[in-house]
Design brief:
This is Two-component system, NtrC family, response regulator. Keywords: ATP-binding, DNA-binding, Nucleotide-binding, Phosphoprotein, Transcription, Transcription regulation, Two-component regulatory system. GO terms for molecular function: ATP binding; sequence-specific DNA binding. By secondary structure, the protein is an alpha/beta fold. It folds into four domains: about 120 residues, 3-Layer(aba) Sandwich (Rossmann fold); about 160 residues, P-loop containing nucleotide triphosphate hydrolases (Rossmann fold); about 80 residues, Helicase, Ruva Protein, domain 3, CATH 1.10.8; about 50 residues, Arc Repressor Mutant, subunit A. Helices cover about 50% and strands about 15% of the residues. It is built from 19 helices and 18 strands. The strands form six sheets. It has a five-stranded parallel β-sheet with strand order 2-1-3-6-7, with helices on both faces. Helix 1 links the parallel strand 1 and strand 2. The longest helix is centred in the N-terminal third of the chain and has 26 residues. It binds adenosine-5'-triphosphate and magnesium ion (MG).
Length: about 450
């Protein structure tokens, strides 16, 4: 079952409030009540509501004003106004101002319940549409292909961490698969049917970054001609993936820390704090610890986002993944081109296995894309590759050396596992010095 949705009911007549609360309470809905406009505003600032039912006449204000304020705070909230008998003009005005619908007193309870459910459905649809716009267009899917022990370990970590709300820091070189891992975490989480909002922090403009993340109110700075929602609103109830987190302007780092710690933030130009429910994912190809040391990254923020780290090793350190990735990409490509499956000659595969892939998986994909154009009869040969890859002619010879390295890596990794990560015992068992072991752990990204 999906999470319950939240309904705020505002009426100054206590009996009506109680009646509606009783009637609408169910496992699918959480009901909150308020008897004045001011307390309703207060409530709406502190938590997000999905549907609001408000009397049009309140002791300290009117429902239409409230409607505008609610829509300002959250454009997707749906508001149903309750009018006294014969106040149809007001009701029409309400719809024009963006109310979902109106009901006239005295009302039938079953109609109210129906309306509330419909309003909730529309609210969901709008949130979905909005988040869709914010989700990267070229969603590359989230199939994490590979059979190496590192990829297996990553899959294991994803399964463990996904159902929690712990923030995850994904590290690895460019093209190694950080996006794929982030999407996998979201898809394996309980939020998979909620928005996944992706933002590359390198594209945040320094002066506007706060507003882009948290939103702003009309007139809060020059150029702020309208209220604006921030990414926090779009990602609410879902996942926010902040890519290249090392590029996050230092000005907003403390505010992000506040969201992580207290789940609250402030819009630019607003005093009140708002509450959000967001699962955070981060990625970087920088060494954040170093950035902290050099004063470019907020230390406390670093510790908060580095609670759970998933590191993706370079492709050259997990060459056993190459054949599977080749098969995966060629399968996709032949499907796209409506061709029968492409194959790779043995010599060509040797080259792919021997090459160092500075651009990691992305480079492999690009090379394959290019090579199928040059292929003949559906077979990819060495000649279809760029020079530096085709030149891996000493491939056979090197393959021996490489597999030795691979064996060493596997061996050390198994030993570490056996001794539960105890480096002293592992070094002893392997008959090498502790320093040498440290070097190898670093080299092999163990
Ligand atoms: N293990 C994998 N299985 C399937 N596809 C992968 C895998 N790793 C990477 N890819 C594909 O390789 C390409 C690059 O991966 P991705 O965008 O995730 O890299 P990245 O680490 O986010 O790089 P950057 O730092 O440049 O953003 C994408 O097309 C992605 O789908
Ligand atoms: Mg990426």
């Amino acid at each position: 079952m999906s999470d319950p949705y939240k309904v705020l009911i505002i009426d100054d007549e206590e009996p009506i409030l109680r009646l509606l609360q009783k009637e609408l309470s169910s496992p699918e809905r959480i009901i909150v009540t308020a008897s004045t406009a001011e307390s309703a505003r207060q409530n709406a600032r502190q938590e997000h509501f999905d549907v609001i039912i408000s009397d049009i006449r309140l002791p300290d204000g009117d429902g239409l004003e409230l409607l505008t304020d609610f829509k300002d705070m959250d454009p997707d909230v749906e508001v149903i106004l309750v009018t006294g008998h014969g106040n149809i003009d007001n009701a029409v005005e309400a719809i024009r101002c963006g109310a979902y619908d109106y009901i006239t007193k005295p009302f039938r309870l079953d109609r109210v319940e129906l309306l509330v459910d419909r309003a909730w459905q529309r609210c969901c649809l709008q949130r979905e549409n909005r988040s869709y716009k914010h989700t990267q267009k070229d969603s590359t899917g989230a199939q994490l292909v590979g059979c190496s022990s590192s990829i297996k370990r990553i899959r294991f970590l994803i399964d463990k961490v996904a159902p929690t709300s712990v923030p995850v820091l994904i590290t690895g070189e460019s093209g190694a698969g950080k996006d794929v891992v982030a999407r996998s975490v979201h898809l394996a989480s309980t939020r998979s049917n909620k928005p996944l909002v992706v933002k590359n922090c390198a594209t945040l403009q320094r002066e506007l970054s706060r507003s882009e993340l948290f939103g702003h109110t009309r007139g809060s700075f020059t150029g702020a001609t309208e209220n604006r929602e921030g990414l926090m609103t779009f990602a609410h109830t879902g996942t926010l993936f902040l890519d290249e987190i090392g590029e996050l302007p230092i000005e907003v780092q403390a505010s992000l820390l506040r969201v992580l710690e207290a789940h609250t933030y402030r819009r630019v130009g607003e005093k009140e704090e708002r509450t959000v429910d967001i699962r955070f994912l981060f990625a970087t190809n920088r060494n954040l610890a170093l950035e902290v040391e050099e004063g470019r990254f907020h230390e406390a923020l670093f510790h908060r986002i580095n609670v759970f780290n998933i590191h993706i090793p370079q492709l050259k350190d997990r060459r056993e993944d190459v054949p599977l990735l080749v098969e995966f990409f060629l399968g996709k490509l032949s499907e796209q081109m409506g061709q029968r499956p492409y194959t790779v000659s043995e010599r060509a595969m040797q080259c792919l296995l021997a090459y160092d892939w500075p651009g990691n998986v992305r480079e492999l994909r690009n090379v394959l894309e290019r090579s199928i154009i040059l292929s003949e009869n559906g077979t990819i040969t060495r000649k279809c590759f760029p020079q530096e890859i085709a030149d891996q002619s000493a491939a056979d010879q090197e393959a021996g050396v490489l597999s030795l390295e691979r064996m060493e890596r596997e061996h050390i990794s198994k030993a570490l596992e056996f001794y539960n990560g105890n480096r002293q015992k592992t070094a002893q068992a392997l008959g090498i010095g502790r320093k040498t072991l440290y070097r190898k752990i670093e080299k092999f990204h163990l």
